[in-house]
Design brief:
By secondary structure, the chain is α+β, with helices and mostly antiparallel strands. The chain has a domain of about 70 residues. It is about 35% helix and about 30% strand. The chain is built from two helices and four strands; from the N terminus they run ααββββ. Strands 1-2-3-4 form a four-stranded antiparallel beta sheet, covered by helices on one side. The radius of gyration is 19 Å and the shape is globular.
Length: about 110
Amino acid sequence: MPIRSLTLAATLAAAFTLSLAVSTGSALAFQCEQQVNEVLQKHSISQSDVKSVKVVRRTGGAKSAGIYGLDAWVRLNSCSNGALVVGMTKYCMPQNVYTTGDCSVTNMPKY
């Protein structure tokens, strides 16, 4: 096989792998949408109060190469500073829910 073909094949393989790595994070965030909505409903938070939702990856630390879990940061219109945070496993299973800043939700811890 000519060198040019090997180089092209390697470049295409790298581009395909990179596209999978980039799309996995956004796909995972999209898959977690249902679980975040269920948590909001459970705590009687209406969709009209939700300003934005950002799902971020949480790693196991400096020596960890993989995703440890995910956090959904929910900004609410009723909060001028802070957010409601849904801590989840890497498979979108909610583990804990709390608020930060001036956000306050009944029966929810505040940090």
